[in-house]
Specification:
The chain has one domain. Strand 4 and strand 5 form a beta hairpin. The protein contains 3 helices and 6 strands; from the N terminus they run E-E-E-H-H-E-E-H-E. The strands form 2 sheets. The protein has a 4-stranded parallel sheet, with no helix packed on it. A two-stranded antiparallel sheet has the order 4-5. By secondary structure, the chain is α/β, with parallel strands linked by helices.
Amino acid sequence: MTNFEMIKYHGQSYPANVPLRIEEIAAHFDVQQIEGQLDYSLHTEYSYGKRKLNSPLIEKYHELKTAQKDGVPQLWKSELWASQFADFICELLDGKTQPRIIEIHPPMQFLRVK
């Protein structure tokens, strides 16, 4: 049986009768730490829009920081990129309650239908 779960999105308001047990927490490349009050879905970099790419955390990951075009991250550029992405997520989660869901996006070119 499939269960649907409403996920709280940022500071949005929901009707009182909508049960919220999971919230989405952003984990894009400008994030330095995560905070939440519910179980959460960690929403990793989705390569939609420009990033500053200047946080102390991203500075440690040269491949992530330099794989960009006009400030928009270019996902999955190499095996080194993938390895640094995993390290970035692990460091972001260090000492935190583990997410119930980790949402990882493919590069946009993989999503095009031919």
